[in-house]
Design a protein that fits this description.
alpha/beta; Rossmann fold; 12 strands; about 15% strand
């Protein structure tokens, strides 16, 4: 019998992680070990896999918990992270999990699995605001937007990985779409942003396919995106999404959306990873089709009937709009260019 690939997966209850879990658990060539925090979400999710996975509940920042991870790991897929908006609201937690937690994973692998291949999920946010230069390659400078704690933790984690004793590869993920939850971050992205999405299913397929492509991925950084069939402006993306949910036109007042200081763009070199892993199966068209099918009649009817109140509720979450309303100069400077300030700012 062929030896199984011993895989450690962190962040298995997350957006991409749950898809990686599903795909790897279906492979008879993999022995899957999941390390995650125990909560209602993870307990319910992992219970569906019965005896197909080994579950280790613990905290990335707890050395005793990390010691539960067995040795001789072949591949570690490290997806666990504190993401926005929580990363912005609790920066100390973001650094503790995203940076210190990554350092802990590296340490335990170096000690007990020195030949392990570490696959790390980074983010397009490390490139910062690309409104004026939306085309991105891995050769571009890492310039996170002002105040983007998440991006800074990703950069620090990347540096820890590159200076470790392990073999590794880093995938910088574009905007990942799956059951996307609306939050105040919706208004942080300028409507003119060039957006390249990737579904969680395709992103997970890249990580799963990477198990057998370690030699060609070794010590390399890649941009992971959906490709030319997954590109759209943020404004058109929202217009289409609002229409599908029955929310009508994207008719928010001026200054509801920021004009600067976010991230996202188009990956010019994204085909490099696709040509190695062949993970792309979804397009914008299939994404919107799947989204439409997932919306219940009741949900669409409710959104249609109460669209005015729903959009007012959404607008109340807009920090750029609040900055104009309160004339908060610090916030105005964060979200807008000075030429776009109101006269009395």
């Amino acid at each position: 019998m062929k030896n199984l690939i011993k895989v450690l997966l962190t962040g298995a209850s997350g957006t991409v992680g749950s898809e990686v879990l599903r795909q790897l658990a279906a492979l008879n060539t993999v022995k899957l070990i999941v390390f995650d925090k125990k909560n209602a979400l993870s307990s319910k999710l992992f219970a569906t896999y019965n005896n197909r996975i080994q579950i280790i509940y613990g905290d990335l920042c707890n050395d005793e918990d990390l010691k539960q991870i067995p040795g001789n790991i072949d591949v570690a897929i490290h997806l666990a992270a504190v993401i926005p908006p929580l990363a912005d609201e609790k920066p100390e937690l973001a650094y503790r999990v995203n940076v210190a937690g990554t350092k802990g994973i590296i340490r335990i692998l170096e000690e007990n699995s020195p030949n392990a291949f570490l696959l790390y999920s980074s983010s397009i946010s490390v490139y910062g605001d690309r409104i004026s230069s939306p085309h991105i390659t891995t050769n571009d400078a890492l310039q996170p937007s002002d105040g983007d704690i998440y991006a800074r933790t990703k950069i620090e984690a990347e540096e820890l990985i590159q200076t470790s004793k392990l073999n590794w590869s880093i995938f910088r993920l574009t905007a990942i779409m799956k059951n996307h939850k609306i939050s105040k971050l919706m208004f942080h992205m300028p409507l003119s942003t060039n957006l390249e999405i990737c579904t969680a299913q395709d992103a997970a397929k890249a990580f799963a396919s990477a198990l057998t492509k370690r030699d060609v991925l070794s010590k390399r950084i890649f941009n992971l995106g959906g490709g030319d069939k997954c590109r759209i402006t943020y404004e058109k993306f929202l217009e289409k999404s609002f229409n599908l949910f029955g929310l009508g036109a994207l008719n928010f007042p001026p200054n509801t959306f920021a004009l600067r200081n976010f991230h996202c763009g188009i990956y010019l070199d994204g085909d490099l990873l696709e040509n190695i892993l062949h993970f792309r199966t979804e397009t914008l068209e299939t994404y919107f089709t799947d989204t439409k099918q997932s919306i219940s009649f009741f949900t669409k009817m409710s959104c249609t009937l109460f669209r005015v109140f729903i959009k007012k509720g959404l607008q109340s979450q807009s920090e750029p709009f609040q900055a104009f309303k309160t004339q908060d100069k610090q916030m105005l400077n964060h979200f807008f260019l000075k030429k776009d300030y109101p006269v009395n700012a």
